[in-house]
Amino acid sequence: MHRKTKDALGVAVISAIAAAPAILALMAFFFRGEVLVSDHGGVEWGSIAQWVAPWVSSAAALLIALWAAFSRRDEATLSAIRDDIDELRKDDARLFERVDKVEQRMATVETEIKHLPTREEVHRIDVKITGIAATLEARFESLSRQIDTLISQNERAQDRLAEREDRK
Hints:
The chain is mainly alpha-helical.
């Protein structure tokens, strides 16, 4: 039920209850002890109105107090609910912002990953590099042996030159 409709209905009910003693007092004034006959027998409206009026007015006052207490509580509850909803909306907005940022970062990472080699390509590169390293190592060993040979030949040639000069 809409809040304004609920408030209007509550005011109408409370007004009707509060008006009951006045209605009973008017009935007592107009009928002044006259007996109206019903199916169950006669009823004297004046004495009934005098007897019921204090009880009805007390009940009306109690109902008005209860209605006021509950309507304030409802307002406080509604206010708290509205505050909670506002906080949830703010939290949702913050979460959506974070999700947007994460989506942007993910798109950037996906773009970068597309440029990276696959697992198979990395394996092929590793095999090629290992092959190249083995080939280079073999060549360096071969060059090292050749250089050692050249060094020893050079040393022998120098030794021969030195012996020839000593003989002269």
